[in-house]
Design a protein that fits this description.
Elements: E1 4-13, E2 28-38, E3 43-47, H1 54-61, E4 69-74, E5 77-78, H2 84-90, E6 94-97, H3 111-122, H4 131-143, H5 160-172, E7 178-182, H6 190-207, E8 210-215, H7 218-224, E9 227-232, E10 235-241, H8 242-247, H9 252-260
Parallel strand pairs: 3-8, 3-9, 6-7, 7-8
Antiparallel strand pairs: 1-2, 1-4, 4-5, 9-10
Helix pairs in contact: 3-4, 3-5, 4-5
């Protein structure tokens, strides 16, 4: 059984009604009848140009937005039929690393509070505050390559790469099984992005993680992914193991992506 099973997933965003009246416009189908499996311990790279529906698909799988139709299962558990209380319990298994490290961290919170927040909300440590949470936060910071001097500082005191490390530590706080990495290096320069990619690969080994790695860059996806799914205009047009997709692509769009992106040295 796959860790994540998605079947016939569709999301249509309705247009707002025109203030001038007239015939209503058809909605935008951002994700169009997508089916895919993600096996435990693998990285499925989801690649496609901006606007292809990649991030929407990632958020649908996490139920951050609700689908128009289709099914999503986590280890055979139907996520769409889960109640709010059940979904709250499942949140610890499902996390996300956001694209923009400058917008995804609350500037009013110290790093300690940012990483501790999910632990407090889910009461994982059995306490709302104290040495147990501080110890866990310090462990998470070390895991992502930062030291305890970061605890009392604010996000604006860090570089983009350091902020992304803080976001990764927050995503790891509840010991998730599955993480959506939503273009986590696209806002960083190439050298810093390469460091983050290597960090994600190491954390996957250390914590037994499963990733959906979303990117518009085929070289980054090729480096990190076990398998690749190519998304175009809301549809998955090609899926396969990394070697076959990158060496013998079947779909014209996949060949275009492979030919259009410079190589990345990691």
């Amino acid at each position: 059984m796959a860790l994540i099973e998605v079947r016939n997933l569709t999301k249509t965003f309705a247009h707002a009604p025109s203030p001038f009246g007239g015939k209503p416009r058809a909605g935008v189908r951002a994700v169009d009848d997508v089916s895919l499996d993600i096996q435990a311990g693998e990285t499925l790279g989801l690649v496609g140009e901006s606007g292809s529906g990649k991030s929407t698909l990632g958020r649908l799988i996490l139920r951050l937005i609700e689908p128009t139709s289709g099914t999503i299962q986590l280890e055979g558990r139907d996520l769409l039929s889960a109640s709010r209380a059940e979904m709250r319990r499942l949140r610890g298994d499902l996390q996300i690393i956001f694209q923009d490290p400058f917008a995804s961290l609350d500037p009013r919170f110290r790093v300690e509070d940012i990483i501790a927040e999910p632990l407090i909300i889910h009461r994982e440590s059995g306490r709302s505050a104290g040495s147990g949470i501080r110890t866990r936060v310090a462990e998470l910071l070390r895991a992502v390559g930062l030291d305890e001097s970061a605890l009392r500082r604010y996000p604006h005191e860090f570089s983009g790469g350091q902020r992304q490390r803080i976001g990764i530590a927050r995503a790891l706080a509840l010991r998730p099984k599955f993480i959506v990495c939503d273009e986590p290096v696209s806002a960083l320069d190439v050298s810093v992005g390469a460091q983050i990619v290597n960090l994600l690969a190491q954390l996957q080994c250390d914590f037994g993680l499963t990733y959906l790695f979303i990117s518009h860059s085929m070289p980054v996806v090729r480096y990190l992914s076990t398998r690749i799914a190519v998304m175009y205009k809301g549809k998955i047009v090609e899926t396969g193991d990394t070697e076959s997709i990158t060496s013998q692509p079947n779909h014209p769009y996949t060949r275009t992506l492979l030919g259009a992106t410079p190589q990345l040295s990691v």
